[in-house]
Request: fold
Amino acid sequence: MNNPDQLRELFRMQQALNARIGVHTDTLTEEEKTKWILNYCRAMGQELAELTDSVPWKWWAKYQKFDEQNARVEVVDLFHFLISMAQVLGMSADDVFAAYVKKNEVNFKRQETGYTAKDHEDSKHI
Reply:
């Protein structure tokens, strides 16, 4: 059995969900793109807060337990919004993969050189 490319499949599924919700990321105006990038950033902030609440971060509270199952759900929720944001920016799964590979190379080079100063030019090629 041939398995679909998993990243491409996630992008396909998210596009279908967004269309079901009424958000067509491939036809947005510049103003709408700005709106949706902000919407997705805010949504991701909330999902990060929910992920944080899955971890016993309150050092003064002894009742907290690590909720790994919920943490996993929150990570998946973050992917929903992150993929939507990439789609708003016109990025396909292939685009994200290519950019990730290039940025990963930059990050390794930064570690090799000690990353003692920010170089705004080292990511311009991505």
In short: The chain has one domain: 6-112.
